[in-house]
Amino acid sequence: MTDSDVQTHLPRPTATRPLLGMTVLVVEDSRFASDAMRLLCLRSGARIRRADCLLSARRHLNVYRPSAAIVDLGLPDGCGAELISEMVSAVPRVGVILGTSGDSFAEDVALAAGADGFLAKPVESVLRFQSEIIAHLPPERRPGGVRMASEEPVCPDPLAYRDDMALAADVLGDDGDERMLDYVTQFLRGVAVSAGDIALQRAAEGLAEARFEGRPTKADIARVAGLVQDRLADRVAI
Hints:
By secondary structure, the protein is of the alpha/beta class. The chain has 2 domains: 3-141, Rossmann fold (3-Layer(aba) Sandwich), CATH 3.40.50.2300; 158-232, no CATH class. Helix content is 48%, strand content 12%. It is built from 9 helices and 7 strands. The strands form 2 sheets. Strands 2-1-3-6-7 form a 5-stranded parallel sheet, with helices on both faces. β4 (74-75) and β5 form a beta hairpin. α1 (31-44) runs antiparallel to α6, α6 packs antiparallel against α7 and α7 packs antiparallel against α8 (198-213). The longest helix is centred in the C-terminal third of the chain and has 18 residues, at 178-195. Residues 23-136 form the Response regulatory domain. It comes from Salipiger bermudensis (strain DSM 26914 / JCM 13377 / KCTC 12554 / HTCC2601). This is Response regulator. Keywords: Phosphoprotein. Pfam families: Response_reg (PF00072).
């Protein structure tokens, strides 16, 4: 099923809800970042579906075709660029395909895979979110008139951040899995960027740098794990 199959039965976009009638597939492993996307979609009038990994996203896409897809590049079972390439090549194609990440190099990776555009994390601005999607819609699908987007940034649920910390703690406690250590390092950096958690962001970056340079990482892992536990114990507010 596609959104176009039921488009005639859906309400038309308005000045305050320019994405009304659209469905956005958000492929994102972070609960905190996903909650930000949920709020952005809600304020824009769009429906949201979420997948937290490549496998889940492919299952969604086997059943229906969303109006737009926003794909995080760092996922637990691979790089989101793989999914972007698959969606670009699919017939029929998803109307708007955007990459997202908190990494500075990620935009080039997403665009090279065929993404229409890119949303750098943190994604807090309703206007920026709407503009990036609308800019890549076919002219006949773009809402006309003046848009009235709130300038107030979205504020995801802090409990979603705690859920991300719980996931990270589980992975950090799994000794000996090098691939998952690399994953949780980039995961924590991305979550910290989205939440403005500078201390955790720097600790994750330090661990990533140590692994890249082949230095001992025991102290870096302990530092990251301690910060994660502080956030789980609610000793640090974001």
